[in-house]
């Protein structure tokens, strides 16, 4: 199923409960603006390379639009459109004063040198610099991008518009980045997993966890949860699934990935190594954390999932057909728009610090992150139980209601 269709079905399920008219649904779903640009660069060997870049600005009724930049071969307009609207509901669920946007380039960054990625990023900024800005649309990292890409982006944007680090978040800490942004999404996933596990009456030491994806989000979630005494029995990346039934040594795995240019798990031998997708069908897993691509859990593989809870660290990992089956089976699914909201929350803290020319300590960032996510979690959990709906429907109901209210107050809808 295409990514936007998947998001639209989740939206519609909540819109039914909110009794929204069709015309209002259409207004809330339609992106404000979609931009597709040519990104051409000279490769190190002198060849010309051409890529397609996107920025979709979904909604700004609650504030400037916010969302990451993805560099991945599967990036296309449909995916970016879906991810942009997820950002709108996400910023609303955690009550940040933002709307939603997303961008990206259809490219495998591993096929380029560092200098080529820099040239590509700068060429992309040349194309979109006039539609992003600290009060309009603020990008950030996502799959395939990191603090270095954010630093190039900012530097190129400032050549047109002058000094203003608040144009982008997820920057290097020494270049106006927030302490704790890099760990924030994974830390948020970890702290929300702890809450779900407690609510389900399970104990950390006895709760086996499997994490798909060991990049920024997956590795920080693994670190947090291992430090919280959970056995992480499996992790995976494109090189395979790494399994140890009594729990992997996460510190050792993190050291291993640091040795590789691309942070791959490949070559780690202190555990059983299985094919990449084996992680999703391991028989004895209590909590599954997809932290890689969207659309990985579908009706074709959902029956093999043994977990009692799924924490959606990735955006859109469970499709609507699989979601319905999981709901019927009583599996608790913490939806992406809440589960991975730690990243955009600390991006907001970075933007606030940039605008105030002030720096917060790591302790303050972590405390405020925990506070923001706890409030959002309580609201979603209570809504789900009072309305007898899934956590996803509850989260969408809260997010959509807030966006609808802002549109009404602005006089855009009634
Ligand atoms: N970065 C952030 O702050 C936020 C990210 N997210 C979401 O979290 C997810 C991960 O993002 P992030 O960690 O930043 O991305 P990264 O690029 O840092 O890491 C992605 C990871 O996923 C792995 N991966 C890719 N395809 C597969 C596959 N088919 N099976 C198993 N592993 C796979 C990659 O493996 P390999 O290294 O081998 O390619 C890598 O380990 C995305 O869905 C993103 O949208 C959500 C909110 C914020
Ligand atoms: O940090 C941000 O602004 C956005 C992160 C993001 O793209 C996401 O939450 O999916």
Automatic annotation (TrEMBL):
Residues binding substrate: 66, 90, 347
Feature type site, description Important for catalysis: 142
PROSITE patterns: GLFV_DEHYDROGENASE (PS00074)
Lineage: superkingdom: Bacteria
An example Gene Ontology molecular-function term: glutamate dehydrogenase (NAD+) activity
Keyword NAD among record annotations: yes
Keywords tagged on the record: NAD, Nucleotide-binding, Oxidoreductase
Keyword Oxidoreductase assigned: yes
Positions of the Glutamate/phenylalanine/leucine/valine/L-tryptophan dehydrogenase C-terminal domain: 178-411
Gene3D superfamilies: Leucine Dehydrogenase, chain A, domain 1, NAD(P)-binding Rossmann-like Domain
Annotated residues for binding of NAD(+): 185, 216
GO BP: L-glutamate catabolic process
Residues of the active site: 102
PANTHER family named in the record: GLUTAMATE DEHYDROGENASE, NAD-SPECIFIC GLUTAMATE DEHYDROGENASE
Stated family: Belongs to the Glu/Leu/Phe/Val dehydrogenases family.
Official protein name in the record: Glutamate dehydrogenase
Species of provenance: Stieleria varia
């Amino acid at each position: 199923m295409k990514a936007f269709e998947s998001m639209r079905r989740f939206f519609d399920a909540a819109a039914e409960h909110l009794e929204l008219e069709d015309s209002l649904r259409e207004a809330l779903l339609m992106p404000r603006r979609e931009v597709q640009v040519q990104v051409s660069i000279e490769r190190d060997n002198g060849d010309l390379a051409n890529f397609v870049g996107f920025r979709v600005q979904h909604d700004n009724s609650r504030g400037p639009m916010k969302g990451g930049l993805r560099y991945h071969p599967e990036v296309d307009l449909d995916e970016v459109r879906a991810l942009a609207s997820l950002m709108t509901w996400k910023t609303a669920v955690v009550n940040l004063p933002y709307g939603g946007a997303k961008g990206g380039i259809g490219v495998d960054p591993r096929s380029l040198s560092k200098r080529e990625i820099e040239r590509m990023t700068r060429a992309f900024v040349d194309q979109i610099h006039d539609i992003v800005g600290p009060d309009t649309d603020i990008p950030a990292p996502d799959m395939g991008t990191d603090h270095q890409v954010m630093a190039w982006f900012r530097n190129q944007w400032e050549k047109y518009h002058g000094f203003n680090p608040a144009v982008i978040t997820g920057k290097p800490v020494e270049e106006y980045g927030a302490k704790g942004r890099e760990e924030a999404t994974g830390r948020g996933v970890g702290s929300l997993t702890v809450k779900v596990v407690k609510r389900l009456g399970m104990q950390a030491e006895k709760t086996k966890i499997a994490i798909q994806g060991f990049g920024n989000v997956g590795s920080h979630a693994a670190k947090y949860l291992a430090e919280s005494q959970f056995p992480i029995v499996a992790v995976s990346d494109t090189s395979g699934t790494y399994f140890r039934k009594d729990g992997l040594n996460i510190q050792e795995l993190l050291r291993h990935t640091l040795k590789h240019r691309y942070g791959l798990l490949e070559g780690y031998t202190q555990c059983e190594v299985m094919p990449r997708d084996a992680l999703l069908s391991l028989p004895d897993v209590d909590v599954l954390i997809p932290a890689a691509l969207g659309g990985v859990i579908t009706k074709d593989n959902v029956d093999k999932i043994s977990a009692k809870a799924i924490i959606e660290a990735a955006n859109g990992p469970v499709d609507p057909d699989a979601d319905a089956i999981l709901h019927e089976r009583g599996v608790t699914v913490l939806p992406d728009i809440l589960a991975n909201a730690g990243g955009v929350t600390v991006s907001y803290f970075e933007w606030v610090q940039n605008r105030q020319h002030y720096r917060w300590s790591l302790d303050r960032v972590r405390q405020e992150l925990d506070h923001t996510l706890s409030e959002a979690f309580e609201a979603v959990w209570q809504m789900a139980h009072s309305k007898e709906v899934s956590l996803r429907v509850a989260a969408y109901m809260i997010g959509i209601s807030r966006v609808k209210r802002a549109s009404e107050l602005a006089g855009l809808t009634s």
